[in-house]
Design brief:
The chain is an alpha+beta fold and 409 residues long. It contains 15 helices and twelve strands. The protein folds into two domains: 189 residues, no CATH class; 179 residues, no CATH class. The longest helix is centred in the C-terminal third of the chain and has 44 residues. It starts with a helix and ends with a helix.
């Protein structure tokens, strides 16, 4: 109880000292405010990036593999080497469908960019995707209007198409696209469906600005020998490793590779994106932590100087308190509480500034999220900075000789 009483007394005296020197205390907190704003905004930005990353990743399906000629994140030299490999061909997808046993869907997919027209409206460089009815399974997409491609469409090579939501809006401008004909290049296609909005894939590929057509129709009318890939959906997350190994073995058999031959294809999956993303966020966090540390160091030096001045000004007060029985720890706690109070005030101001900045960034640029964890960390950092920077002045005050302190004018 006596210790708690000393803490309450020390807090009361420290708050009185802070209120008595408002301007000096406010100036001392500038470095702390800058540091807390930096660390809070960094955390909010990384949280927002994490959420955007999860949303983008979910568009690909957590248990989907992508078999292609090259890896997604090659170095330039590796990319040049892999371009000498044989392309993935439709017959590879057909053979994989017959031989793979641990998969729920196999979807060959090819892309090209063409001009899309409806009446007098025209959109250039639209992403044209040739695929099959299994594309809904491998991508997890859903239909907003009409229907998706059926097995009859894909096997018979019917000139039908499904539009992304943004493309449908831009091309038809309020009209229902169902049952209308559009032109892809010089070829006419009947619109049978519109997909639900899906957003961007990692901020670059717009999944809503595309036209999906039957794979055979793509080969016949758009590009007969495309550099394609095969999307493969595993039976479940528990069998990802087994599915990947089976894919590798089946593809090696399909492409007639000898045991000593290296793979001439790549099996890509989300882990590569996860690894790259974590590397990038680690770099961002390291840079932000360095900047924050500099700001907090400068702020801590400022707090320390202010506390040394405060101790010097109140030397006689310290002598009186020690003369009437105040212990060293009481004096130490008093000045530590004062330093921590100044830093906590700066931290709270920094949090308020960061919160307003986060709202502005979210409204005008990208989504940033200030979580409770970030707020708690910012408050703890503020208090620790105050304790560390105020320790030496508080220690000097606690070690003063009461007789010498009372002689001070």
């Amino acid at each position: 109880m006596k210790f708690l009483s000393e803490i309450r007394e020390g807090l009361g005296i420290s708050w009185d000292a802070v209120r008595a020197n408002k301007m000096r205390s406010a100036l001392a907190t500038i470095g702390i405010i800058i540091g807390i704003v930096t660390v809070t905004l960094m955390g909010a930005a990384i949280n927002g990036l994490n959420q955007a990353f999860v949303n983008s990743l979910s568009a690909m399906g957590g248990d989907t593999f992508f078999v292609s000629r090259s890896s997604w994140f090659d170095t330039y030299d590796e990319y040049l080497k892999e371009q000498k490999r044989r392309p993935i061909r439709p017959e590879d997808a057909a053979a994989l469908t017959r031989q793979a046993t641990l998969v729920s869907a196999i979807d060959p997919e090819a892309e090209d960019y063409e001009t899309v027209k409806y009446k007098t409206r025209s959109l250039d460089a639209v992403d044209i995707v040739g695929t099959t009815s299994d594309n809904l399974i491998t991508t997890g997409a859903s239909v907003a209007q009409g229907r998706f491609l059926t097995s009859g469409d894909t096997e018979g090579g019917q000139p039908v198409c499904v539009l992304g939501s943004e493309l449908a809006t831009n091309l038809f401008r309020g009209e229902s696209p169902l049952g209308k004909h559009i032109k892809i290049g010089d070829h006419s296609f009947l619109v049978v469906g519109v997909l639900q909005k899906r957003g961007n894939l990692f901020g670059s590929m717009d999944l809503d600005d595309r036209v999906i057509i039957p794979f055979r129709e793509f080969l016949a009318e758009i590009w007969s020998r495309p550099n394609m890939m095969i999307e493969v959906k595993a039976n479940g997350l528990a069998q990802l490793a087994e599915t990947q190994e089976e894919l590798r073995q089946v593809m090696r058999h399909i492409r007639h590779l000898r045991p000593e031959d290296p793979d001439d294809f790549a099996i890509n999956q989300q882990e590569q994106f996860v690894k790259l993303f974590h590397e990038q966020t680690a770099v961002i966090a390291a840079i932000g932590l360095f900047i924050t540390s500099l700001a907090l160091f400068v702020g801590g030096i400022g707090i320390m100087n202010i506390m040394f001045v405060s101790v010097a000004e109140r030397t006689r007060e310290i002598g009186v308190r020690k003369a009437i029985g105040a212990k060293r720890r009481t004096i130490l706690l008093q000045f530590l509480a004062e330093a921590a109070s100044i830093c906590l005030g700066g931290g709270l101001i920094g949090l308020a500034i960061a919160w307003l900045t986060t709202l502005a960034v979210t409204h005008f640029l990208f989504t940033a999220t200030m979580s409770w964890e970030i707020v708690v960390i910012a408050i703890i950092v503020s208090l620790l900075t105050g304790v560390v920077s105020g320790f030496l002045p508080a220690w000097r005050a606690a070690r003063m000789d009461p007789v010498e302190a009372l002689r001070s004018e």
